[in-house]
Amino acid sequence: MIPSEVTAFLASKGIYLLTFILLSLGVAGMIVCNNYMKKLICMNIMQVAVIFFFLCLGQKNGGTIPVAMDGAVKASEYINPLPHGLMLTAIVVSLGTTGVGLSLLLRIREKYGTVEEDDIIRREQKI
């Protein structure tokens, strides 16, 4: 049985724990993996974790979207749209870096016949 303190903590701050786990998986994958394709996937996992973190920071309990409404709403009740707009830009940049990374991987595969880091370093040292 999970204690009520742990349940309350996970309900309020568990999303940050999930973000930390995703970021840790991405960093660990970048360090451990020798395959450049796997490194690119781990880089994308890290990017998703950072975007997720900023979107979670931009939320507020009981907040409303910042649009014109009939009723008078105080400014403190609005959700700040800036983090969400910035993260849309981050998603576009993430797609761009992924596309460039994939094209570089294709060129590496054409030149060396592999995307394994150890094989590429071994072939470069022979030259």
Quick structural summary:
This protein has helices spanning 4-32, 36-57, 82-112, 117-126.
**What structural class should be given to the helix and strand makeup?**
mainly alpha
The best one-word shape is elongated
- Helix count? 4
Largest sheet: none
Kindly provide the name of the CATH class.
Mainly Alpha
List the uncertain runs.
none
The strand count comes to 0
Distance between the termini: 62 Å
Mean pLDDT across residues: 87
**Could you name the CATH topology?**
Helix Hairpins
In the CATH hierarchy, what is the architecture at level 2?
Orthogonal Bundle
Question: Can you write the helix and strand succession as a string?
Answer: HHHH
Proportion of strand residues = under 5%
The radius of gyration computed from the alpha-carbon positions, rounded to a whole number of angstroms, is 21 Å
Overall number of structural domains: 1
Residue share in helix:
over 70%
Can you describe this structure?
By secondary structure, the protein is mostly helical. It has one domain: Helix Hairpins. The protein has 4 helices and no strands. Helix 2 packs antiparallel against helix 3. 3% of the residues are buried.
What brief labels describe this structure?
elongated; single chain; 4 helices
List the helices and strands and how they pair.
Layout: H1 4-32, H2 36-57, H3 82-112, H4 117-126
